[in-house]
Amino acid sequence: MERGKMAELESLETAAEHERILREIESTDTACIGPTLRSVYDGEEHGRFMEKLEARIRNHDREIEKMCNFHYQGFVDSITELLKVRGEAQKLKHQVTDTNRKLQSEGKELVVAMEELKQCRLQQRNISATVDKLTLCLPVLEMYSKLREQMTSKRHYPALKTLEHLEHTYLPQVSHYRFCKIMVDNIPKLREEIKDVSMSDLKDFLESIRKHSDKIGETAMKQAQQQRNLDNIVSQHPRIGGGKKYKKDVCASSDLEVKNTSPMSEQDSGILDVEDEDDDEEVPGAQDLVDFSPVYRCLHIYSVLGARETFENYYRKQRRKQARLVLQPPSNMHETLDGYRKYFNQIVGFFVVEDHILHTSQGLVNRAYIDELWEMALSKTIAALRTHSSYCSDPNLVLDLKNLIVLFADTLQGYGFPVNQLFDMLLEIRDQYSDTLLKKWSGVFRNILDSDNYSPIPVANEELYKKIIGQFPFQDPELEKQPFPKKFPFSEFVPKVYNQIKEFIYACLKFSEDLHLSSTEVDDMIRKSTNLLLTRMLSNCLQTVIKRRNTGLTELVQIIINTTHLEKSCKFLEEFITNITNVLPETVHTTKLYGTTTFKDARHAAEEEIYTNLNQKIDQFLQLADYDWMAAEPGSKASDYLVDLIAFLRSTFAVFTHLPGDVDVHSTMSGKVAQTACMSACKHLSTSLMQLLLEAEVRQLTLGALQQFNLDVEECEQFARSGPVPGFQGDTLQLAFIDLRQLLDLFIQWDWSTYLADYGQPTCKYLRVNPTTALILLEKMKDTSRKNNVFAQFRKNERDKQKLIDTVAKQLRSLINSHHL
């Protein structure tokens, strides 16, 4: 039952659902019927639904049939009317066709005209569009053409600006065109091309300034020299008028003044003189000699392109390389002044360019970079100058180099570079300059001394006399009173040496100019250098002349006179230095001149050389001595060699006593040198004769030989008594031969008893006879007696004499032994 009820209920629900679906199909649009049909097929009762659908279709067909039957008559009427209308429509169609044919025939020309009009309109529209597009494109093409033109004319910075304008203003308006895309693609290439071309211009610029550094530096140094000349003129002439002509006249007068007052003007190099033709023209600056526009353009271009730092680094790197090349001196720079000048010109030119870039390029280089370069340049320049200046042996070249360094320093100081180290180095070069001066003046002194005739200067008239007086400070009232012709006591080398000492002082003063030294420092430098000249160079030259083998006694005497006068002139040299330095000699720490000592030493050396030469002459005569030591009897006169020796001594000392000159000099020569020389000669002669008598080669001698030797000694004593040189008191000169005299008297008189009895007493007659000397001579006579007197042993007298000799010899040995004990 329950199952039947449930089946019935389900059947009712299905029927109701099918009814709903049918209504929905009837009322729904055909396009939306899909979901409704899908619900039917999703269910399980679609067969029943199809039955109901067919039943509903049959119901609708019956209703349609009923409706058609009801309206059939009206339909037939409508068909009839429609057939009538068709006939009328056919007529209308034929009329329309005819009308259309006529219209087509009549409007054919109009259609052609309309087609032409259409084409014209189309062309007009195209032309208008083309004009509009060209209006947009032409400025782009014009800008591009302008860009190319600027690049061709190497106006790279304007080209870069044009490129920026083209890229950001014009190309965006026509970016859809193909040629614009090509331009856009070319823009980076154009930028690179501009960079490359501008960099090439920069390289050309760097090469140009490298080549022109010499000229730029020369110009800058000339400007500095002109400024210094102008400063000197202003300081000398406070009231300066306007105009270049006045400037030129003042410069000329100033130069003339300098030439007339400078004692070494003939040795000046002239490197600092400004040429006359340049005085009337403005000296061009660095910007006039070099076109700096490439570096500015390149800097702007790289700045616009955002690569300024790259450009700065490249520029500084290249300039550092150029600086190292500039600072590398040529190997032969020291040979000529032009080598130094070119070296300095290049350095000055380099830094003048950098200074100009520093002040005009807005940061391309900075002060730190310039200072770094200058420190490197300063150290390398000083090292190079130290090395190359050490090769300079010409003081004129060293002086010119100093002037060039001062101008170099002043030039760079004018551009703000510190140059104190250069002036410190000049003080080092000053020492080298002094050394070269000393060497030069040493040669000058040698030439003067070698060419001198060592004779008093004769003067035949007042003009020559005043000329000598003007050259050398000499005053002698007695000489002034003498009539012409007359002679100065000194030879020509005295005024020449004196003037050369003054020239040396001027040369020292010349170097100290423009070194910013105080008067005290200049005075000290001059005095020290002059002392070196006197104590080292002049002293050595005098010593060389004095020690020279061919220098005779007359020359040595003249040297003594000359050095005496030069010694007296030292006070005038002191006054001369004081006048040119304005430093009083009483000032604290003032160096004194050592000229007095130098000339005294030279005079003493000459005196010693006189004594030595005399002794050497005596030795030469003594070498001619030819004694017959075995002679039985003496000759009737003194030996020939000794007679000649005495004659030589007489003539020599006669020269000493007839020297010209004032009273002081004459008394000095005769009273000191002549007396000392005479005493020295006599002592040396006495000593040499004693050595000749006692020399080991003379093993035997006879009494006759001793008597001949006595004659020679008597000749020497006669010479001493004759007073060859005035001034000796009594028999002072004879005392030189006292040893020989007492020894000879002892042997000739055979007075041994007196000698042995009085030996050792102050009043002994033979006080100067040494027992050793007596024993040596006695042994030689004893040997002679033994060998020559074969039969002496058979003679009582000879035997007694031999015994006496033996006894005396024994006693002499006893004296010698007791003396040594």
From TrEMBL:
A Pfam family the protein falls into: EXOC6_Sec15_N
Keyword set includes Transport: yes
Keyword Acetylation in annotation: no
Listed InterPro entries: EXOC6/Sec15, EXOC6/Sec15_C, EXOC6/Sec15_C_dom1, EXOC6_Sec15_N, EXOC6PINT-1/Sec15/Tip20_C_dom2
Top-rank taxon: Eukaryota
Annotated Gene3D superfamilies: Dsl1p vesicle tethering complex, Tip20p subunit, domain D, Exocyst complex subunit Sec15 C-terminal domain, N-terminal subdomain
GO CC field: exocyst; plasma membrane
Keywords assigned by UniProt, alphabetized: Exocytosis, Transport
A GO biological process held by the record: vesicle tethering involved in exocytosis
Role noted for this protein: Component of the exocyst complex involved in the docking of exocytic vesicles with fusion sites on the plasma membrane.
UniProt family annotation: Belongs to the SEC15 family.
Name this protein carries in UniProt: Exocyst complex component
Source lineage: Eukaryota, Metazoa, Chordata, Craniata, Vertebrata
Gene designation per UniProt: EXOC6B
